Amino acid sequence: MVDNAFVDLTGHNFEYCRSVCWAARSRGLDAEVLVHRQASPDVLRGLPARPVFRHLAYQRFCAWPALRPILDPILANLGFLWDLSRAMRGCRTPGDLVFLPNATYRQTFAVAAWLATSRRPRRVVTLFRYTLRRHEEGGGWQPAARLARASFRMLEAVSRRHELRLVSDSQRLAEEYAQLTCLPVHVVPIPHAASRGGVVAPPPTLAQDRPARFVMLGEARDDKGFPLLVEALERLRGPLSRGDLAVTVQCHLRDGAQSASHAARARLEAAGLPGVRLLTEPVDTATYHALLTESHAVLIPYRRGHYRSQTSGILTEALAAARPVVVTSGTWMADQTRAYGAGVCFEEGDPDDLARAILAVAEDLPSLGARALAAREDWLTRHTPEKLLEALLGEVGS
Questions:
Q1: Which of 177, 184, 242, 283 could serve as a FRET partner for 170 with CA atoms 20 to 30 Å apart?
Q2: Domain range annotation of the chain
């Protein structure tokens, strides 16, 4: 597995790689994760990880904004190619599979160049998780789509000699990328479905007493709707004060986090809302899963522009744990939620409607919990580490 965005335990990267490594080992296969050179000690202890890459996936190189859209991808690909080529020199076992779980145009030129210069055929799978559509409603392609299209031309050329597969974990995304390349783009499962070392824990019985316990998991980011959630919680002061609701918010901030999320967390800390618990530091795997299983429902108020097509590991874990969810209408998460009736949707950017959705879930927990529990069995037949590994090693299909 090759991921130069992988530095610490925050985000989906650690759970994703950990679950795939576990599935590989359970089948007697070796697994190794090539990560950033500054990967934290926790990552190096928790995974068969090798620090390789000097640059982060979205690192800035160019100081001039006007030139950055062109020079940054060029420099990112050159650095990635150098580090990848050096790291792969000793990997000569027939049948080796190289898997990029976070491929973008900042790596795919390098992948094509590496394959073009490889002396023997390689097996490579690139997974695309990020939309190249503009975030505003009705927008066309981002400028980066032109670079992606150019890199796909190179990948198409090397695919004649190498076993190269393009995949996504979203049908919506697969349809987007299929417009940029003549290579097929398949849909594969999402592996970290509440998997703890490969064992999926059964959901605890939903308590019928109050308060209804909600959790928002992950870092505080603008695109994940953190500022909107703060506004909604301010409108829920009454139910929080009466003890009808309790909300745990995992809200650590990365370096360079958006200013709106910084301001929103400061406002939430100053508000001192009753029944609201803030976790301002990253948590380990055990604590993360405890937060999930101790909750009644999960809040996923992600911005539609960013997550119209993109998937959510947290939504995957919530449904696998039989937890009802609150999600934004018009997103991939809303598609899954409506298919099972396992949650409530709210309108993008509307804190009043988000507050309404939270109250609706709290008032209907027994029936929503029953639907989430009924959905869990089907969800876990499709989204597991084993299913993803089968797709990667065998014939990739929807």
A1: 283
A2: 13-191+384-393, 200-382
Give the tens place of pLDDT for each residue, 243-270.
999 999 999 887 655 789 999 999 999 9
Q: Which fold has domain 200-382?
A: Rossmann fold (3.40.50)
Burial of 125 (0-12, 13-18, 19+ CB in 10 A): buried
Write down the pTM of the prediction: 0.86
Q: Distance between CA atoms of 115 and 124, rounded to whole angstroms?
A: 9
Give the integer Cα–Cα distance in Å for 162 and 333: 35
The reply to whether 13-191+384-393 and 200-382 are identical in fold is yes
Distances in whole angstroms, Cα of residue 232 to Cα of each of 41, 239, 267, 351: 37, 12, 12, 5
End-to-end CA, the chain = 21
Structure tokens at 295: 């909750």
Domain 13-191+384-393: CATH architecture, name and number where available: 3-Layer(aba) Sandwich (3.40)
